[in-house]
Amino acid sequence: MKPFVTIVLVMCIYLPGSDSIGMYGKSVHFPAKTANSFVRLHAPDFSSLTAFTVCLRAASEETRNYGLFSYATDSNPNELLLWQESKTHLRVELGNQKITFSLPEMNALLRHICVTWESHEGEITVWVNGRRSVRKVGGKGQVVKGLGQFILGQEQDSVGGGFDINQSFVGEITDVHMWDHVLQHNDIKKVSQGCLRYGGNIIDWGSTHYTFEGIVAIEDNKDCPL
Prior knowledge:
By secondary structure, the chain is mainly beta. The chain has a single domain (20-220), classed as Jelly Rolls, CATH 2.60.120. The protein has one helix and 19 strands. Strands 2, 5, 10, 11, 12, 13, 16, 17 and 19 form a nine-stranded antiparallel β-sheet that branches. Strands 1-18-3-15-6-7-8-9 form an eight-stranded antiparallel β-sheet, with no helix packed on it. Strands 4-14 form a two-stranded antiparallel ribbon. Strand 10 and strand 11 form a beta hairpin. The chain is globular, with a radius of gyration of 18 Å.
């Protein structure tokens, strides 16, 4: 008599709108322009910020304008917005302040982008693949208000909504982190190389809960740094 063998198949199924924890080693792929495809990052609430560092990896071949990272509150849908203008300019919006940086062309190769800001002097800087831009001034004396929503893939015209198909992101995003302070230069370089041993204390790509809707693919990031 042949021995009885039990085979157990384990399947991981991602359901739109379901709450999942962290995307370590994963990328979010937005394959097409839509008005309803997005990822919501369920970060812990905070009262306000007088400084931050936002980092992510992104790639896109779009030539139009689109939102890379959107944070909206009841008082301002663009409380904090990273906005790609054409292929060579990144605009950082802080409330009513808009600061634009001329950067290397966005293309199909994943690049690492960090934005740092502190309120006291209003100093704002962009880093691409660990290299620093010129320092600019914006949002001096301001705060980033809390109790808002973080969205990837769309630009919010109202909290959690008001999406425009012509402002939607098409491409790939991964390794999104946000801290409530300005990271030191060496730490930003480590983050760009995938070597920092801890994630953001507001958004941590490896542990922050997320939900998504629409045409969104959560895929293994085979090029994720070790």
